Amino acid sequence: MANFQLKDTVPDFTLPSVAGEKFSFKEHQKEHDSWHLIVFFRGAWCPVCQEELREFQANKEKFEEQGVHILAVANDDLEDLQEYANKENITFPIMADKELEAIKAYDVYYHGEDAPYEDHGEHGEPAYFLVNEKGELMYQQQQTGPFGRPHPDELLRTVKYIKKNVK
Q1: Is residue 49 among the annotated active site residues?
Q2: pLDDT tens by residue, 79-94
Q3: Cross-referenced Pfam families, in alphabetical order (predicted)?
């Protein structure tokens, strides 16, 4: 798991997005002087992830009211992610990380060939990083499997709590 400590500056990444452009986290931070919730998910093929992304879309305005932009990353094929995002009208950025750039930079658990159990082939597992406007980590949670991930409502409560109590 990541060795990030709270207030550490998180790594930048540039990945292809479902919008058909290269998405630079650093450039997005400059354009949007706000907090970001980076959500790593297994892929467009994962039914639990599909439901989670729909829930994030349904709560997108609530996150934005708290000054938080949602970003999502998976090491799935860009075309599959685009198809899913279009079908479900997902409007927050979704990026394809086929080369594992962000997954490795954030030390997201990767279910590879050496994993102790069989599970839909190779893929990154769910992880969540809340980053303030300075690029500093304010919260993180990582999974080693598909279940136990926080619901967007829980993450909203976490955001509100942290923002209220920030020093």
Answers
A1: yes
A2: 999 999 999 999 999 9
A3: AhpC-TSA
Q: Which helix (H) or strand (E) holds 28?
A: helix 25-31
Sign of CA dihedral 110, 89, 95, 32: negative
120 Rama class: left (phi>0) / alpha (psi -120 to 50) / beta: left
Token pair belonging to 87: 């079908």
CA distance 79 to 82: 5
Higher per-residue pLDDT: 118 or 124: 124
Longest dimension (CA), the chain: 44
CA distance 140 to 10: 11
The per-residue pLDDT for 1 is: 43
CA distances in angstroms from 124 to 40, 78, 81, 138, listed in the order given: 7, 15, 14, 22
What was the pLDDT predicted at 76?
A: 93
Nearest CA-CA partner of 44 in 55, 53, 32:
53
The catalytic residue among 49, 94, 127, 137 is 49
Q: State pLDDT tens for residues 49-82.
A: 999 999 999 999 999 999 999 999 999 999 999 9
Q: Does domain 14-165 have CATH number 3.40.30.10?
A: yes
Q: Say whether pLDDT at 130 is over 90.
A: yes
